[in-house]
Amino acid sequence: MIQRVLFQGARAKVPTNILRISLLAIVAVFTLSFTNCEPGTGPAPDGGVNPNEVAATVNGNEIKMEEVERILKQQARGEESKLSPLELAAARLQVLDGLIRQEVLFQKAQAEETVPTDEEVNAELNRRKTASGMSQEDWDKQLTETGTTEDSLKDTLKKEMAINKLIEKITGKIEPPKDSEIEAFYTGNKEAFKARRGAQLAAIVIDPRKVAEGDTTTNEVEAQQRAQEIGNRLLRGGSDFATVAREFSEDPQTRARGGDWRYFTEEEMRQVFPQGLAEYVMNEAENGDIVPQAIPFEGRILILKVQQKKLKDEDQTLETQGVREQITKALIDSRKQLLSESYAAVAMSDAKIENFLARKVIDNPNELSGARPAPQGEPANTNSGSNANTAESNTEAAANSENANAESDADEANSENE
After folding, report:
1. How many domains would you assign to the chain?
2. CB neighbour class for 305 (10 Å; exposed up to 12, middle 13-18, buried from 19)
3. Do 202 and 147 form a contact (C-beta atoms < 8 A)?
4. Phi first, then psi: what are they for 295, rounded to 5°?
């Protein structure tokens, strides 16, 4: 069970739900979930790809390998060097597919006059900078680390905004569902409208990394000390949690709401928090209580407050506040998604697309090795009599590559379904 003292404990790696707008999210390629080379200057001297090589054209507009590699680097987060040539080729084709779709839809946006002005792009970029909570120094550092310039970032953002406006224009004709549709949806999905046992939590976030302007803790020791100071202050009483959160929390999103975070079902708490927290919150804590232990959470430390508990599952009806609106939004969003997918499919079929990278794979299917690079520090196998072991190793590497590709396909399918 949760002990009634704040502690300086070890960190746990768990999925993060704290809302934080990251630079990677801003520069990621915008894709709708509806995924012989062109002559260049020859192969890259390091055996990789030539950044000036044309990967594909869309109605004559070129997509360079430089852009494919930039996005691949962002998505792989520095792990691309661990992939085999076969896995890298598959990853490049997937990234290129997203860039082709983006270019097709951006050209449609240009035709439909939904491209934002430079002033609109600059305003949105500044808004996202502010929301990220980063200092200018940290912002510039992440631009450098992700191989992105301010101009390329603006270009990506311009395309994203243009495509968003295009889809809003295309889907604007969708009408709200009829009452009979809403009732039929509720009847067929009653289990989804149970209010599950759980609790609304608030959080003060202490981050040992300096990721935002105004962060006061920059290492583990400082973060642990600050968490203990704040926790003890709150447990002594006399301090308002929301006021302390606005003053000390190092997460911009929750700080702006006085620490208010989100509702967790009891099962979710068991999945994402250290053992014992869910039992303490649901069986011991009262509404308004501070959890008397600093909680490790994805490299950060949380001081939690139980805002409001729901002690039993409750069936919701169409008369329950918000249910009818929730169903209406779900039905409209589903129709918009289907219309967006259909529009994109037609746009892709109408476009003249030349995928030179895919053609290169077709022309040279046997030149891609499935063997991953050996980990640094491991001596190379120089035993000439180990042919059997080598064969087994190659077989295993090929199997791993196929599994990795299968997992990649599954992840992509899940992403599209979401």
Report:
1. 2
2. buried
3. no
4. -105, 120
* Alpha carbon separation from 221 to 16, 215, 252, 274, 292 (Å, rounded): 22, 14, 22, 21, 20
Of the given ranges (129-133, 364-368, 384-388), which has the lowest mean pLDDT? 384-388
The two three-digit tokens of residue 304, written as one number: 């939690």
Q: What is the pLDDT of residue 144?
A: 83
Residue 375: predicted pLDDT: 66
Distance CA 406, CA 399 (A): 10
Residue 169 domain boundaries: 31-173+330-376
Residue 92 burial class via C-beta count within 10 angstroms: exposed 0-12, middle 13-18, buried 19 and up: buried
User: Three-state SS for 355?
Assistant: strand
Asked whether residue 344 falls in the same domain as residue 301, the answer is no
For residue range 151-180, what is the model confidence (pLDDT) as tens digits?
888 999 999 999 999 999 999 989 999 999
Residue 381 lies in a domain: no
pTM to 2 decimal places: 0.61
> Any idea what the CATH number is for the domain that residue 240 is in?
3.10.50.40
> What would the DSSP string read from start to end of 388-413?
HHHHHHHHHHHHHHHHHHHHHHHHHH
Q: CB of 239 within 8 A of CB of 259?
A: no
Q: Are residues 250 and 146 in the same domain?
A: no
Q: Which residues have a Cβ under 8 Å from the Cβ of 195 and sit 6 or more positions away?
A: 310, 313, 314, 315, 316
Q: What is the CATH number of the domain that holds 81?
A: 1.10.4030.10
Q: What is the pLDDT of residue 376?
A: 60
Which two tokens mark 194? 């149970």
Helical H segments across 112-219, by residue range:
118-132, 136-145, 150-171, 179-188
* The pLDDT of residue 249 is above 50: yes
* Within-domain flag for 398: no
In terms of DSSP bridges, do strands 260-265 and 295-297 run parallel, antiparallel, or are they unpaired? unpaired
Beta bridge partners of 397: none
Residue 44 φ/ψ, nearest 5 degrees: -70, 145
Confidence band for 374, pLDDT divided at 50, 70 and 90: low
Any idea which of 104-108, 207-211, 375-379, 393-397 has the lowest mean pLDDT? 393-397
Domain membership of residue 67 (yes or no) is yes
**Strand 194-195, strand 314-315: pairing:** antiparallel
Short-list 64, 73, 110, CA closest to 91? 73
